[in-house]
């Protein structure tokens, strides 16, 4: 079979874009698509040249000192948006208006209202759009959800704990930092708490997101200059009694074991460098005669951004406009949950007005 080919236009040359591009150009035996770096859009030619030299030296993309050049480039099939949160909506709308497909980093937008606006524009234009929540596409995560919800390896799930914490010296960051300025969507919730929340939903819900029973959500936030530096969330499912205790913080780094799932017949611990990048999980049985079973992520080059990129390529080749693992409805649902958390916690973005 001939692999589908996607020509990517990259918007933004920051850290997340560097990881994404470096992954796309990796040679992989399990690749499901061919990815070409067709164009780079940055704030200057110098930054764009340095970016491509370091992260994709064998590519020869068109380099633009503005994002408009990427949107208008007729050789670009899809735009990857790696800008700070608050610029996602406008970048998505610009790309869509030029008939480009879109893969936009998480959080997709700063609130659910913006996401709905983008998806409506995509619907009218008939283009593919997806939130780039890469963790959902990792083989280890897919294997874990299979073991929990289909194989029932630990019986009925009772509770899930997940934490994503980073030790960030906020006092020495300028007030204009995207990690401190509410106008830039600052705070632990949108930056890293979205991963803790995602793990809770993936591990507590044993049916597709479209049919998911909406949990009751309880939450608290600690604010600093209007941005949350710590958030705690409880998801409660009245019908099953399941609960998720999900946290994020910018005051201390999480231990390697960042999550635990407790069930009627056992438990599972999940660990890795961060909640966004799990490396393995261990299944423990209540049966003392059964030894713990360890499942490790497959060995592969790069970090794993290519899994979501492959999924996008296959969808576009099949003329689908959304992905079943990260459908539009799920992006909106997660943003609506986070909107409620911020409203209860006192956090407010100018974009909420």
TrEMBL record:
GO terms for molecular function: D-xylose 1-dehydrogenase (NADP+) activity; nucleotide binding. This is D-xylose 1-dehydrogenase (NADP(+), D-xylono-1,5-lactone-forming). Gene3D superfamilies: Dihydrodipicolinate Reductase, domain 2, NAD(P)-binding Rossmann-like Domain. It comes from the Eukaryota. Residues 144-268 form the GFO/IDH/MocA-like oxidoreductase domain. Its EC number is 1.1.1.179. Belongs to the Gfo/Idh/MocA family. InterPro entries: Gfo/Idh/MocA-like_OxRdtase_N, Gfo/Idh/MocA_domain, GFO_IDH_MocA-like_dom, NAD(P)-bd_dom_sf. Residues 6-131 form the Gfo/Idh/MocA-like oxidoreductase N-terminal domain. It catalyses: D-xylose + NADP(+) = D-xylono-1,5-lactone + NADPH + H(+). Keywords: Oxidoreductase. It is an enzyme of class 1 (oxidoreductase).
């Amino acid at each position: 079979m001939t692999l589908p080919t996607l020509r990517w236009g990259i918007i933004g040359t920051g850290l997340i874009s560097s990881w994404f591009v470096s992954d796309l150009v990796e040679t992989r035996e399990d690749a499901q698509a061919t990815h070409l770096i067709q164009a780079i859009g940055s704030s200057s030619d110098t930054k764009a040249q340095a970016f491509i030299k370091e992260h994709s030296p064998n590519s020869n993309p068109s380099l633009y000192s503005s994002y408009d050049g990427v949107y208008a480039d007729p050789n670009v099939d899809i735009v990857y948006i790696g800008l700070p949160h608050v610029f996602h909506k406008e970048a998505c709308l610009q790309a869509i208006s030029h008939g480009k497909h879109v893969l936009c980093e998480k959080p997709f937008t700063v609130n659910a209202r913006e996401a709905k606006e983008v998806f409506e524009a995509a619907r009218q234009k008939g283009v593919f759009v997806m939130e780039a929540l890469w963790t959902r596409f990792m083989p280890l995560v897919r294997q874990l959800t299979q073991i929990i919800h289909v194989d029932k390896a630990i019986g009925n799930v009772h509770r899930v704990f997940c934490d994503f914490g980073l030790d960030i010296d906020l006092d020495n960051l300028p007030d204009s930092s995207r990690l401190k300025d509410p106008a830039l969507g600052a705070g632990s919730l949108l930056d890293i708490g979205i991963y803790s929340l995602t793990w809770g939903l993936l591990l507590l819900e044993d049916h597709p997101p479209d049919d998911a029973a909406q949990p009751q959500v309880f939450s608290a936030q600690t604010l600093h200059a209007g941005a949350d530096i710590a958030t705690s969330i409880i998801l409660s499912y009245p019908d099953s009694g399941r609960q998720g205790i999900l946290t994020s913080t910018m005051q201390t780094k999480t231990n390697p074991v960042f999550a635990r799932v407790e069930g009627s017949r056992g438990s599972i611990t999940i660990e890795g460098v961060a909640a966004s990048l799990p490396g393995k999980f261990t299944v423990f049985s209540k049966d003392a005669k059964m030894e713990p079973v360890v499942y490790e992520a497959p060995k592969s080059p790069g970090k794993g951004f290519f899994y979501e990129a492959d999924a996008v390529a296959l969808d576009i080749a099949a003329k689908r406009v959304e992905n079943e693992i990260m459908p539009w409805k799920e992006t909106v649902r997660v943003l609506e949950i986070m909107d409620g958390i911020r409203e209860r916690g006192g956090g407010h973005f100018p974009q909420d007005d």
